[in-house]
Design goal:
The chain is α/β, with parallel strands linked by helices and 76 residues long. 46% of the residues lie in helices and 12% in strands. The chain has a three-stranded parallel β-sheet with strand order 1-2-3, with helices on one face. It is globular.
């Protein structure tokens, strides 16, 4: 999926019931335009190690259902 467009990636994630985790602001624009999705977790790029991000993702997975994430953007 690396060569796929942002729209294709979002559609693929939706078709497979997967939340997209990204630091690409283009996905925020797609959300704002009304594109349907299974959920987007947006994180700011920077000097953050992967361990804290993974911990936050585990908390989100435990706290939010698939239905709650649908067409929702969570900022971490």
């Amino acid at each position: 999926m690396c060569a796929a467009s942002d729209e294709e990636q979002l559609a693929y994630a939706l078709a497979h019931g997967r939340v997209l985790v990204t630091n690409d602001a283009d996905f925020l624009r797609l959300n704002a335009s009304g594109a349907l999705h299974a959920g987007i977790v947006f994180y700011q790029s920077g000097p953050r190690s992967r361990r804290p991000l993974l911990s936050l993702l585990l908390v989100l997975a435990a706290e939010l259902s698939a239905e709650e994430m649908r067409n929702h953007v969570e900022f971490v």
